[in-house]
Write a structure and sequence with these properties.
This protein is 51% helix and 14% strand. With 316 residues, the protein is α/β, with parallel strands linked by helices.
Length: 316
């Protein structure tokens, strides 16, 4: 009888060991699954934190570049014309035309406010912007107000003429209707130091703006003729755009600048006001600044700015 008992004991011990092994294995598998689960949870948590921090970085970086997410409700779009108007400048056709296209074709934009603070610049560059403005007004029927800040002179005032209404502050400087060609004259200094320049020109006026050569009487007359012609075109455009608002017999083409109140008195502008007061009175809508604005210099500014433009175009 002892042998069977021993066999049964061995079987029972085997069963116990098997059960214990199963429990150990089960616990081990549960622990491994728990470790994997927590590992994934940690990965997802860190990934979420990374995405969140990157989103915060993009938001702050976009703000530093002057970009803002467009509101969902109707808005008045602000388009900035800041500094000298010219190719390669912030107030250039290259910068402003794409902004104007985006603004006028946005269904959320109720009206457009040109925020002008510029002493003028290159008339052709202003002409390019103005023609785009006229075309977009015809295509969309949207109203445009020009707001002159500290200064709206020369080519900047020329651009303001293409708005439906011109507003300036009491302390704004407005006008300078005319044209100018400026250059240096170093020919006497060159003569003093016995410096001569070899010049091979194909015509009598080809070298007329060379600062190291004395200008001939014929070239002086030609330069003045060019200035007078450009001033005449500017004056004609001014008279057409401000017809019925300016004084008869008043000389507007002296090239001078007038303060806001006098500019209103003689018909250069339509009213005294600010962008905040007029927008609130006319539309009761929030404004949204579309730029263009100075870009942050940081690392790879052009590449970063292009990324921000792409991201914000998706968001809008």
């Amino acid at each position: 009888m002892s042998k069977p008992d021993k066999k049964n004991d061995e079987l029972e011990q085997y069963d116990v060991n098997s059960i214990l092994a199963d429990h150990v294995l089960s616990d081990l598998l549960k622990e491994r699954r728990s470790e994997r689960r927590w590992r994934w949870i940690k990965r997802l948590a860190f990934s979420g934190m990374g995405v969140g921090l990157f989103a915060v970085y993009l938001a702050f970086y976009a703000s530093s570049l002057g970009y803002k997410l467009m509101p969902s409700a109707e808005i008045v779009a602000i388009v900035n014309v800041s500094g000298s108007i010219g190719a390669g400048q912030l107030a250039s056709a290259e910068e402003l035309v794409p902004v104007l296209e985006k603004v006028f074709h946005s269904p959320k934009v109720k009206a457009v406010a040109l925020n002008i603070d510029s002493p003028g610049g290159q008339p052709f560059e202003s002409e390019r912007i103005a023609e785009t403005l006229d075309r977009l007004k015809r295509e969309t029927g949207k109203i445009v107000y020009a707001f002159i800040g500290n200064t709206g002179a020369s080519a900047a005032y020329m651009l303001a003429l293409h708005a439906d209404r011109i507003i300036a502050g009491r302390y704004s400087m407005v006008g300078s209707i005319g044209a100018i060609i400026a250059g240096w004259d170093f020919h006497k200094l060159a003569e003093k130091w016995d410096i001569n320049q070899r010049i091979y020109a194909s015509g009598v006026h080809k070298n007329m703006l060379n600062p190291f050569a004395a200008m001939s009487k014929e070239s002086e007359e030609k330069a003045q003729q060019m200035v007078d012609q450009m001033a005449l075109v500017f004056a004609k455009e001014f008279q057409e755009k401000r017809k019925g608002k300016i004084r008869e017999g008043f000389n507007y083409t002296t090239g001078e600048i007038w303060g806001g109140e006098q500019a209103l008195e003689i018909g250069l502008i339509d009213e005294i006001g600010t962008i905040e007061s007029v927008v609130n009175r006319e539309w009761h809508l929030p404004t949204h600044d579309f730029g263009p604005t100075n870009k942050s210099k940081g690392f790879f500014p052009q590449f970063s700015a292009q990324i921000m433009k792409t991201v914000l175009s998706w968001a809008n």
